Amino acid sequence: MSFKLVKYKEPDFSQSQFTDAPDAVTAPAPKDKVAPEHYHATTIFPEYFKVKGQWLLAEESRMDCVAVYENGKICIREFRNLKQGDLVFTGRTENCEDGIFVYPHGFDEGEGGHDEAFAFRQRRSRETAFSKDYDNIYELLRHEREHGYVVWVMGPACAFDSDSREAFSKLVMNGYVDALLAGNALATHDLEGAYLNTALGQNIYTQYSQPNGHYNHIDTINRVKFHGSIPAFVEKEGIDNGIIYSCVKKDVPFVLVGSIRDDGPLPEVYANVYEGQDAMRDCVRKATTVICMATTLHSIATGNMTPSFRVMPDGTIRQVYFYSVDVSEFAVNKLGDRGSLSAKSIVTNVQDFVVNVSKGLGL
Prior knowledge:
This protein is an alpha/beta fold. It has helices at 16-19, 131-147, 162-173, 184-196, 216-227, 230-236, 243-250, 273-284, 296-304, 329-337, 350-360; strands at 25-28, 47-51, 54-57, 66-70, 73-77, 87-90, 100-102, 150-154, 179-182, 198-199, 202-203, 254-256, 289-293, 309-311, 317-319, 321-326, 344-347. It has a six-stranded parallel beta sheet, with helices on both faces. Strands 3-2-7 form a three-stranded antiparallel beta sheet, with no helix packed on it. It has a two-stranded antiparallel sheet with strand order 1-6. Strand 2 and strand 3 form a beta hairpin. The model is unreliable at 110-122 (pLDDT under 50).
């Protein structure tokens, strides 16, 4: 199988709905962090704004932000980053009536099958066969290693098993991971696995709880804080395995954003959620593929900041591939319920998923 990107089909701006549309209207932000009345909120899809008769694409769009006209371009800005006087686009229609066009069909491509009104098993669930998805992911990752930027979003379950830790490490070391987004727990339990051979006090291979094992994760955090950073801990303690170790050795950026539940946390964890959100966005704005595994809130957060498309350096527009992997149907479907409609769900144990992907790539 040879992977091929779906070609983007630009709207036909010669049609009357575009030529007859008015220019989009802007209004100044009345205060810092406040949008004007009737502001237009953005989506994950390509959005075009008619300015002086020309349809301009908002090149770095994302959900639940506002569009600002600045220096001849459409800039997408979070409400918290608005400055008084910013020219914010207004209008709540999406089909040219207000000079704004939201375009969800740029990557539509038939995949066989029929369009009957009634058909079985149209939703993706634990009964779905995911064999084709795995084949697609293998080919996609091979393509992205040479041409894209793959962001992985991981929950702590990925670090609870020695085989999945080893499998993901191989993905990192072989160039299939460009950035890792996670919380304190994933990094803590992965480093605990390398340091004490446990995750939350359970042996990462046998899954047997160890004596006084409930100390192990906080002992690990304490030792990392003693050394001052994760890279220093890796070096001083002779850590030689695991997910975070591989990221450190391969110089793969990892963004750890804290939560109200965190122990410690590790030194690199962002305690300020908005600073963490900005750091995540720095990675996501480069992403061409995103794979979220066993972390509902991190997956939703990443989905909300990931558009369905990416404008490449040469000006071409390509699809962003987004997978949500979890053993819970609720977790993977929640992402779609939150508006990230381009996410493809895979219902399976994430530890098995990582091992299968690594093996499928021949690692």
